[in-house]
Amino acid sequence: MKVALLGCGVVGSQVIRLMHEQSADLAARIGAPLELAGVAVRRLGRKRDVEVDPALLTTDAEALVARDDVDIVIEVIGGIEPARSLIVSALSGGKSVVTANKALLAEDGATLHEAARAGNGDLYFEASVAGAIPLLRPLRESLAGDHVNRVLGIVNGTTNYILDKMDTTGASFTDALEEAQTLGYAEADPTADVEGFDAAAKAAILAGLAFHSRVTAAEVHREGITEITATDVASAKEMGYVIKLLAICARSDDGRSFGVRVHPAMIPRTHPLAGVREAYNAVFVEAESAGQLMFYGKGAGGAPTASAVLGDLVAVARNRLAGARGPEESTYADLRAHPMGETVTRCHVALDVADKPGVLARVAELFAKHDVSIQTVRQEGHGDDAQLVIVTHRATDAALTATMEGLRELDIVRAVASVMRVEGDE
Amino acid sequence: MKVALLGCGVVGSQVIRLMHEQSADLAARIGAPLELAGVAVRRLGRKRDVEVDPALLTTDAEALVARDDVDIVIEVIGGIEPARSLIVSALSGGKSVVTANKALLAEDGATLHEAARAGNGDLYFEASVAGAIPLLRPLRESLAGDHVNRVLGIVNGTTNYILDKMDTTGASFTDALEEAQTLGYAEADPTADVEGFDAAAKAAILAGLAFHSRVTAAEVHREGITEITATDVASAKEMGYVIKLLAICARSDDGRSFGVRVHPAMIPRTHPLAGVREAYNAVFVEAESAGQLMFYGKGAGGAPTASAVLGDLVAVARNRLAGARGPEESTYADLRAHPMGETVTRCHVALDVADKPGVLARVAELFAKHDVSIQTVRQEGHGDDAQLVIVTHRATDAALTATMEGLRELDIVRAVASVMRVEGDE
After folding, report:
1. A203 vs B425, which has greater pLDDT?
2. Considering only CB atoms, which chain B residues are within 8 Å of A290?
3. Which PROSITE patterns would you find in this protein's record (chains A, B) (predicted)?
């Protein structure tokens, strides 16, 4: 079974190492030995984390995936192009593909899945979401007889590391980010992580699998964590909550559509996701019969991601030997992703208010006007420190947004100090 | 695709309900509709939790599995016989089988797997361990390219409920058991749960999958939780630990054998398994490349178990449609399960001792004599309450056992008040 590897960076070099170190185990598990047919790289002379036979290296990725003797292509280049053309070319040529490319799957998964169908090959992508955590296979296969209602995931290790530091040490966002950069958990340009782009791509993939529909990253409502302050974190803590950046895929109450979004949210400290520390990832799934499930582990890094790639490689190789294919893309349900305004959530709001009688009455009236029901109110401080802290019952995002706009216009409200959605305690 | 169901109890009736309620989804996911061909029961007239067409019911299970038009057999009777004969008969007849029968798999899995191979059918058993939690598929498939070193699992909900109550309320074992029985978490005869038999069967299945070897329940070292006192629980709590009944499968340091055991153990409260409350299950896996993974969810109950059965049913049905088979039993590594004496653990020991100088020196000398190195010692109390609390470094169980025997013979030791293994903080 001949394997072509596209990319030899952090993940690719670990894939080569594991294919070499575990070759006897892999051969026994597959029923045939794996052979590395070639490795496509950008520059031949570069120093690498792993020893590679120079004869295997090539800068002509297109020629490598076109080779007749290649059975399986592993793509760990990332990004949209040339990854897409290479994968499509491999699949169209009847090869099977294993990829870790979340951005591509979330932008144009349909093209890849169609090419797989046309070429009668497999397209596996466990490594694209939550690194080493076996998550896509359980969603695609183990829960195939169940009905997933909701997925709540911590799918970005960088932001979890930052929020965890802010929670445990009281650090500001900027200081926590700097520490994450020093330790290699965050990149020099942290935008993709802290603005939620990375998590949004993963959310799109998860929603597609959970709801058997096609979802692209463009349909994901996305908010990052850059505006979270040490005060927000402390105030959440005081109320028994912790702030996490969540990827949330939730079926609507009538079951006919779903929402998919990435934003910071407060979750109760008793929730299984609350204990997910440092750069770990975890995904919480609520299914009708299975109930609550959680999958926890390392979401990134060379070796963990390579482990997921190798698991897919074994499955794909077994399928080819048996002349079979794994489960195809499943989009039969074809549900609609509804806009953020239709999403139903609870909300935590801190208002700086005038310290005089009747303030609560006027604020409560405004909430009522927008049909947003209040669960708890706490009045705190005096004079210039007077604050109202409100937690609402479930309401549509449109109603909550309108309420916040109304609050900003009330003369007795000096400022809307913070607004944060609350998840995981219904 | 015709399905025969053996057993219509708590799980079987949920399988029927889900097959009915989700029939359109299941057909779309499989690519062909499922049809219930018959349901084998012990008594025809019995009242059931689900409506079943009386024409489908039969007491002749053997005739049902022999029917030519049946493609897939689901076995949820449990126990060794007649389940084994029925499954073997179905597999020998070329049918695929989905079973939740942990006891049978742990006692005589080899016979079932051989019958599956001979008949060229599938044998799937996700529901046999940790109910709804997708665990066996990840171990069998997602981690097929990795090297599992250790599995630590809370795989019995009844005992976790009891230990959690003891931990949170300070209740005695007897009171916590009684509460569990009242709430339906424990059976009238709780032996299979509290003595660890149920967990031991699951440990055997997990070890077989993790180490690609054949393991039976007889090879599992087993200790229950009946002797755990409120004092043990309180003392663990004080030290930042919690007591859990763990199923542990661990490769030896030289990688040439493994240990498989079920016993109560102290784990640090910071360990992800420590937060597993009530009757939930969770399995913690350490793999060489993937690192630490955890799978969490409901380990029992009709609907959760049925969800796992249905997931297998979809996979098996897809395989048959494609003329393929899922992954076979993988026992190529053929590692040896070593006896408990060779298992290496840490240990927490509380000794009631004489309150006089030189006691610690003599106790320490005895540990040294057996090559057991001490990590921490705490001296507590005075006079008749004088106690030494010792936590050891890693040592073989044989050395620890010999040390305990030696301690019991020391005149300065009034009693070995408690001995408990410590896991999860190396």
Report:
1. A203
2. 132-133, 297-298, 303-304, 307-308
3. ACT, HOMOSER_DHGENASE
